[in-house]
Amino acid sequence: MSPPRLTIGDFAQLTQLSRKTLRHYHEAGLLTPDQVDPASGYRYYSSAQIPTAQVIRRFRELGMPVPEVRSVLLAEVAERGELIAAHLARLEDQLLQTQSAVASLRRLLSPAPPAIEVRLRAAPAQVVAGIAADIDRAAVLAWYSGAMAELAALGVAEVGPCGGLYDNELFTDDHGQAMVYLAVERAPTVGRVRPIEVPAAELATTVHPGPHDDIDVTYGQLGAWVADQALALAGPVHEVYLVGPRDTPEESAWRTEIGWPVFRTAIGRPDGYPGGHD
User: Fold this and answer.
1) Residue 189 CB neighbour total at 10 angstroms
2) CA distances from 97 to 90, 166, 217 (A)
3) Cα end-to-end span (Å), the chain
4) Got the DSSP string for 44-70?
5) Which of 69, 150, 182, 274 is the most exposed place for a label (fewest CB within 10 A)?
6) pTM of the model
């Protein structure tokens, strides 16, 4: 005995998908009615289609586009898992971006954003064990994680905190060179790891506390200080991970030094400025 036919209204009530949504899914080839009356055009569904409709509703609630939902439903079991995993990974990335935006906004809109302490210091040249690449800004976090994992796998003795250099073009053009490194006595050549010289620089530095969700605000405050002191930015930004994920999973304990290479403009040199050229 075949299951009873359900009108589109009944099916909508049972699946919590509106009539309009069901018609759209039919036209998109996502959920075809069990039967369509050729004379009236009325759509009828089978009770056996209820689980499929519920799966579709869940995927759509997770923001999966209709074509991707269709691909998942038509895929073999193994491929279906890969498609779902890829979408969940995108959702996790979006969640991280949302959390970062919220953290930045809360800090920016607070009645009195905490002031930063800026220090001018001369950073000597050093040869480090580094991994460098030209990358898109959107790929920085994923690239950073992979590069740091590869550096950690070296198992070499470190003589200072790890760090990174990021070209200005990463911020201005969304594409540029990034380099992460370990401070070691002798830099090996293994895989992507190469000895790389970090040139000497005069840096305006500040320390960003905690996770990087609102590190852009600290960047902005440091940039404003540099402009107020009649200094000009020169070269890639330096980050030194004084305390980071490699040291503790407690994000509130993280400390990241941001250092911008600077030089004196014509207006003058601020008190305590350690370098520059006349």
Assistant:
1) 9
2) 11, 20, 15
3) 95
4) EEEGGGHHHHHHHHHHHHTT--HHHHH
5) 274
6) 0.63
If you classify domain 119-264 with CATH, what class do you get?
alpha beta
| pLDDT per position as a tens digit, 54-74 | 889 888 888 888 888 888 888
Domain ranges of the chain: 5-74, 119-264
Q: How confident is the model at residue 278 (pLDDT cuts 50, 70, 90)?
A: very low
DSSP H or E stretch at residue 260: strand 255-264
Can you list the positions of beta strands (E) in 173-277? Answer: 175-184, 194-198, 201-209, 231-233, 237-243, 255-264
Cα–Cα distance measured from residue 153 to residue 27, given in angstroms and rounded to the nearest whole number: 53
CA 266, CA 277: separation in Å to the nearest integer? Answer: 11
The answer to whether 30 and 53 have CB atoms below 8 angstroms apart is no
For residue 267, the tally of other CB atoms under 10 A from its CB is 9
Copy the structure tokens of residue 168.
């200005």
